[in-house]
Amino acid sequence: MSKIRFATVWLAGCSGCHMSFLDTDEWLIELAQKVDVVFSPVASDLKEYPDNVDVCLVEGAIANEENLALALELRKKTKVVISFGDCAVTANVPGMRNMLKGSDPVLRRAYLELGDVTPQLPDEPGIVPPLLDQVVPLHEVIPVDIFMPGCPPDAPRIRATLEPLLNGEHPLMAGRKMIKFG
What we know:
Elements: E1 4-10, H1 16-22, H2 27-34, E2 35-39, E3 53-59, E4 62-64, H3 65-77, E5 78-84, H4 86-90, H5 103-113, E6 131-136, E7 146-148, H6 155-166, H7 176-179
Parallel strand pairs: 1-2, 1-3, 3-5, 5-7
Antiparallel strand pairs: 4-6
């Protein structure tokens, strides 16, 4: 039996979902026997998202041009995309920035109003990826196959979502244990 090509991606979020994924503890050993991790911020330093990914957990909202480009690319190259955690599902905390109504007010607030020693806007390319005017959940820019809410989803929910996929089945995303937010 061939291994599943597995990826995880971290967009605009706190990495709490990835930390919760690591909380699956010993199950990670079993998972490692069934998947090849081909892209992940916790397992590799790869910069290019690979072709032919079977399953990808996507943590975080779409907040900047880099997030948007990666989301579009991974959708083209992935069979099953999982919106992983409340930020990916609803934009959650990163989406609070939307109250400032645009990217310019966000940058001014963060770098000028709250700047401590030498307040200045970052103006060198590559320092801050260009912000989108609004932070949006993953499904507003690409089709999502499975929604796994939670802030973060706990280890049993992560395992209950992934295990059926390892067996060629679709997980049952129903009931409080699988679809509760927060």
